Amino acid sequence: MTDARDAVLHSAPGALVLERVTRRYPGNPEPSVAELSLTIAPGELLALVGASGSGKTTTLRIAAGYETPDEGRVLLGDEGGAQRDITREPPQRRGFGMVFQHYALFPHMRVEENVAFGLEARGVRKADRLGQARDALDAVGLGGKSARPVQALSGGEQQRVALARALVIRPRVLLLDEPLSNLDPTLRQSMRDELRSTLRQSGVTALFVTHDQEDAFAVADRVAMLERGRLLQVGTPESLYHAPATRAVAEFVGRAALVPAERRGDQVRITIGGVALDAPARQQDPNTSGPRLAVLRPESLVLAEDERTPSWRGEVVGRRFAGGHVVYRVRLGRGVEVEVMGDGAGAREGAQTGVRLAGVPVAVVPGSA
Amino acid sequence: MLALALLALLLWSVVYPNVAVIVGSFERGLGDWRAFAASPADLDALRGTIIVSIGSVVAALLVGVPLAFLLTRTEFRGRRVLSGVATLPAALPPLVGVLAFLFLYGESGVVTRLVQRLFGLHEPPWTLTGLTAVIFVHAYTMYVYVFLFVSAGLERYDTTLDEAAMGLGASRTLLLRRITLPLLTPSLAGAMLLVFMSALGSFSAPYVFGGGARVLATQILVSKLNGALGLAYVETTVLAVTAVLALLLLRWLEGRRRYSMAGKGRATRSALRSPVARALLPAAAAAVVILLVLPHAMVVLVSFARDGAWTTQLLPPEYTLDNYRKLATDQELWRPITNSVWMSVLATAANAVVCFAIAYVVVLSRAPGRKALALLAALPWAIPATAIALGLAATFDRNVPAQLRILLVGTFWILPLAYFIRNIPIVTSAIEGSLRQMDATLEDAARGLGASRWLALRRVVLPAARPGLVAGTMLAGVAAVGEFVASVVLYTHSNRPISVEILAQVRSLSFGTAAAYSVLLILLVLAITVGARWLEGRVAESERTVNAA
Question: Above 0.95 for ipTM, yes or no?
């Protein structure tokens, strides 16, 4: 993580920097977070994704100050460009905003009192803080509900109150712990867009934890993927999808079949059932030794009805309508199953078909089947 | 039908005696009320009652709240031991606690003499008498309510709310004032109510330590023994009305702030930040543990002291097994023990049957009058024990079948009846609690599958009620076997319970014998508690086996 981009961001104002942060819990031999380094640029929305137990929530709590790392530092770049070590600063003094998974709204306070609480802690006079709270509630579309008890609100409304409460203190950094996980699927779709536009407008630097890659892709500028406390890859959603660095990233992000492959210069050769097909390789392969897997996305493959062009033969075992296209599941013998994007005019379940590469670049990751 | 029968039973046993007291207070028109208002002793007692009640609440809060926070929120050496003994005072039957305090902090108590000798004083450094002494004893026995309620509140407490407040910049004081305390209000109000009611009706501590100070609960007995029955009725009415008013006030406060916490309430314990506090805490915890264990230890020690030998020494000089031997061999001395066991077994069995029926009607039936039934079943809780006892004495002192009066005063049966009435609220609410957790459609489902009413009751409702039934009857048994307040008003020589005999032995300065009785009483309480746990565990175990198979 010491590429040129990070070096520039290290001294940028408003940046949040985690530097080789490690956190161990007593009775657990594996560290929960291990030597994690991450830089969030000012105004950037970074999502931390990973399965449960990957250390993403611990990382967030270290950033917030609820946990102190055993090793490593947390740095905050201020407006002047200088960096300050805040590793041991308690949450009260960090001036960060946080949106909790269950929102942690104070159940005995009205909506506006909840939002005004951070201002109350900063000594703002009652009339002023309630005024600001109402403005913030207007901004998230809850202007009419400021005098309600919080428990009278729906899940989506509570989420917006939590967001308003965190933003009204004009935090230097906003931290969000699974902010969308408590919403039902339909609401979740619309809240993703709303969350991103609210965060964009506020211009805040945000670190956002989720186990859902779709949440991450919809909200974040960049995505960092964690596994067992270690950072696997960080980059734009596109780069994680098209150029995964490891097998774990390839499997976690999007749908993919991983099949054994060989690098041949700038080509990838994939052999299934004795038929070898070539595709352009997506990225430079820095590692020259060891077995390789090709990451076959549905759009890297097409159905080949005519039998003249070389193709892999298989049986259609499933088809799924996905809006603008249809995805076929095709079994290519010996347990290799791939998904192929098509137009819906193609085969039915049970039919024999050919599959070939679409000619788009294919990513390759280290590993064997 | 069942609902009506239960309603009639409660009207007869709970309401009727209290009405009789109120009616009795007007027997001479307003004469007794005027006498009450003109009597300096009575006004003093009313004032004393209110001071003791409020003082006990404040003292119990001062001890119980910090202890609950300490034990649920922080980790330190000795925490487990301290939390193990923190509820110990509740295991002391009321009179035994008072007795232990007498041995420890009374004018010739061990601690009193120790301090006197250490500082070479001619006089004891304090006298354990008056309202302050009563509040001191109450603080020890009643802080447990506050501790338990606040601990339970903190266990349920969603600590992410604290984190959210801290993240928003709240200082510790703002956090406590605006978030933590308001959210604990229901727990605090519930505990305050319990302490207030207990202190209001408390009899043993004022009786033994009151000295010149008066409270209504003891004043009632004084009036009754002096033959001023009308005045006793007025005093009882005043005490009961005060109690009900306090109940309504605190219930209102409790209900006004009730929230459900959304998050997972996880209690996280952390070490204290200040190194000084970290170093001092284990020592302070050890001191508190000693303070809590001391009364129990003292009662045990004195139970081996030869009666009459302990005069001016710091500790009893001679030890013997005679006290226990006497209890076991002397028929007259053994009698209170069998009395207490029999009377509490009878009362508790009646509680189990009647209160299960009440809870069943209240929770699972649509019978008209079930709301009234619930109210009546809770009523004895609001009425101090002295008042209940006096009501029974006023009602069942003659045989007038036309007035539904039968002669019970002076018989064996009056005490079991008193115990039964006192324990109706706790047993009923425990069973209600269990039944409310049961899915109400289960009984319908069983009936729909063709089960008879009886089969559905036995196989569906009773198992669901079981945890509350066991816990409720256990608490009732514990309360009955050590009951003192109603007993002292209603006992006769032949049915005197252990507690009354303890007092008699103290009066005749046979401290060793009194302590031996107390130890036996503690052992009985322990046996009931352990027995109930064992029973609950065994049934739960057999159910698991059934479910697994």
Answer: no
Distance CA B336, CA B331 (A): 10
- Residue with the bigger pLDDT between B370 and A3: it is B370
Question: How close B65 gets to chain A, by Cα (Å)?
Answer: 21
Mean pLDDT over B7-36 rounds to 91
Question: Which pLDDT does position B7 carry in this prediction?
Answer: 92
Q: How far apart are CA B359 and CA B262, in angstroms?
A: 29
Instruction: List the single best residue of B163, B168, B175 to mutate versus A (max A Cβ within 10 A).
Output: B168
Do the Cβ atoms of B265 and B158 come closer than 8 Å? yes
Residues A233, A234, A235, A236: is their CA dihedral positive or negative?
positive
Among the partner residues B165, B167, B183, nearest to A96 by beta-carbon distance: B167
| Domains of chain B, first to last | 1-14+319-549 (1.10.3720.10), 49-212+248-303 (1.10.3720.10)
Residue corresponding to tokens 């859902």: A212
Q: What is the pLDDT of residues A232-273, one digit of tens each?
A: 999 999 999 999 988 989 988 888 899 989 888 888 899 888
- Residue A281: phi and psi, rounded to 5, are -80, 140
- Which of the four pLDDT bands, split at 50, 70 and 90, describes residue A11? very low
| Nearest in space to A229 (alpha carbons), one of A100, A98, A62 | A62
Query: Over the stretch B382-417, which tens digit does the pLDDT of each residue have?
Result: 888 989 999 999 899 888 888 888 888 888 999 999
The sign of the CA dihedral B31, B32, B37, B41 is positive
Mean pLDDT over B266-271 rounds to 66
Cβ-Cβ contacts under 8 Å, A98 against chain B: 163-164, 167
Q: Do A104 and B164 touch (CB under 8 A)?
A: yes
Say whether pLDDT at B91 is over 90: no
Pairing state between β A45-49 and A222-227:
parallel
Place of tokens 């996980």: A181
Domains of chain A: 4-96+171-242 (3.40.50.300), 256-366 (2.40.50.140)
Q: What is the DSSP letter of B458?
A: I
Cβ contact, residue pair B170, A108, below 8 Å: no
pLDDT at A8: 27
Residue of A nearest to B183 (CA): A108
Q: Which residues of B touch A106 (CB under 8 A)?
A: 161, 164-165, 179, 183
The yes-or-no verdict on residue B337 having pLDDT over 60 is yes
Nearest to A235 by CA among A253, A258, A251: A253
Q: How far is CA A329 from each of CA A252, A279, A280, rounded to the nearest angstrom? A: 19, 21, 23
Contacts of A166 in chain B (CB under 8 A): 168
Region of B214 on the Ramachandran plot (φ > 0 left; ψ -120 to 50 alpha; else beta): beta
* Residues of chain B contacting A64 with CB distance shorter than 8 Å: 167
